[in-house]
Here is the input.
Amino acid sequence: MIETDRLLIRPFRDEDRVPFAAMHADPEVMWDYERLFDRAECDARIARYDDFYRRLGFGRFPVLDKRDGVFLGYCGIMPTPDDHPMAPAVEIGWRFTRKSWGHGYATESARACLDHGFNQCGLTEVLSYTRNDNTRSENVMKRLGLTFLHDRSWTHAGHPYVVYIARR
Ligand SMILES: CC(C)(COP(=O)(O)OP(=O)(O)OC[C@H]1O[C@@H](n2cnc3c(N)ncnc32)[C@H](O)[C@@H]1OP(=O)(O)O)[C@@H](O)C(=O)NCCC(=O)NCCS
Here is the structure.
């Protein structure tokens, strides 16, 4: 369990499945994927996040409003898949419900997840990457004070990606 001034970040529970799936059914939130995820894909993702958390001590977690427990989004660190251009590495990522944008929740939760990864899980370097037209996500990386890696860009489906790094 990770707590910040405004947020609660904890392992997934059954009650998170519905809001997690609703977020992944919102075209505005999913614009970077250019497709939506159905409930089965969402449940499979939660299972994968949980599996990494059990094995490694870190993973993607639901982010909740501390005052009322409302689901705001997810944030956390995951190993990049073996066939990814940045592998082997671990990556921090985030996705928030549309209503939760513009409150600083992504930055607040990511800062706490990085602190957890570095100080509780022994990580020394964490990447973060996004499509170069995902300004909102890149702005989170900048707010966190991550370092831009000029020489680590790649292109996927016609979109160049930007890569940042956090070091302990
Ligand atoms: C990427 C994403 C998580 C960014 O969310 P966000 O809310 O813009 O990011 P932050 O949490 O850093 O919030 C910063 C904003 O909150 C505002 N804010 C309001 N109150 C604040 C507070 N108390 N503290 C900090 N910031 C605050 C900031 O001024 C800033 O506003 P701006 O957007 O007008 O510049 C969100 O847009 C999203 O979920 N996008 C879709 C999924 C996605 O692209 N994920 C990343 C894939 S790589």
Q: What stands out?
A: Residues 29, 32, 93-96, 101-107, 130, 134, 136-137, 140, 143 surround coenzyme A (CB under 6 Å). The chain has one domain: 2-167. Strands lie at 2-3, 7-9, 60-65, 71-79, 90-96, 125-131, 147-148, 155-156, 159-167.
